[in-house]
Amino acid sequence: MWDLLQRGDGVVLEMDLLEGLETLKFEYGVPEEDRTWLFLQGRSRGLTIEACAHATFFCKLFQILRQAVFGHHLSGRVASDPSFTHEKFNVGIIGGGHLGKQLAHVLLQLVPIPTENLRISSRRPEALGDLQKLGVQCFYHNAYLVSWANVVFLCCLPSQLPNICMEIQNSLDKACVVYSFVAAIPVSRLKLLLNHTNILRPQYQCAGGITLNIKWLEGMLYAVLNICTAKEISHVQVLQLLNDHFLSVHFEDCEKEKASCPKFQLTDFISKTYAKSFPLRRPFPWFDLTAVQLKETPFSQHLAASPALQDHLTHLYCRSFGVSLTKEDRQEVSAPGSPPNKERTDTHAA
Length: 350
Fold this sequence. Notes:
Helix 1 crosses helix 3. This protein folds into two domains: 153 residues, Rossmann fold (3-Layer(aba) Sandwich); 120 residues, no CATH class. It contains 15 helices and ten strands. It has a six-stranded parallel β-sheet with strand order 5-4-3-6-7-8, with helices on both faces. A two-stranded antiparallel ribbon has the order 1-2. It is of the alpha/beta class. The radius of gyration is 23 Å and the shape is globular.
């Protein structure tokens, strides 16, 4: 832990505040033979950063979607229905521990979500004074929280999850996305506990940077489709929305040849056989996100076979945090000529 002290003559000195205070250092009391495990501290921090970054990107895409729909960017019934223009994007967090608090601050600052659109349910709301000072409502009422929210982040302990699921399962709207950080509970088990199909459980890797896992990207995009299906938006309009807002970020070398850039098609999300008889004005079918994350889908096959689409989604992710990839960065993220396998599709955004 370092601090800066200012001397009278204007010279800045750098000083270790813990120098000579060995008992206050993190590694104090850890036997020498066990210090090899201290790397887990850094690993835990890295996974927390990745978890918050993915959740932020997820919420950013939801905001883009809602702005496009409710901002009259689409034609037809959606644009003419006044009820679409005033809906808010409400985010709830269940659990006010370390992850829940970190996630709340990140969402407020980086999405950004207005404080009135973020609420936290915790058994100890009094411990969230810093968030309450910002204007975030903190209380202990899980069922009320999920009945209000469009997206609910589960940041609780595995031992608490069964009781929480019993409390909230009857209050969940079908379109509410449950985003679980509880790694010990598989998504198939969570589906049974909640009797709910709109569930996301991100997958992480600790590989020297933030990893965009193909199944996470897939689940996120199918969740976006479910939002549009709940609003009965035709699949043609949805594809237009995805192409205009999610594939609009290009690399410099493809700006001149945008015609060759990837575009989402109906068969990227449903089978070719099903697509042949799909009416133009029909919304996408409702997708079970648990099945999407556990099985191969048309989109996972398409994404694995399309390096250009992988590049564009990686670029979209980076640009959402204000990071512009150069041509050299692009080569590091995905080496040209790499085979379309798991190592290729689990791309890294350092």
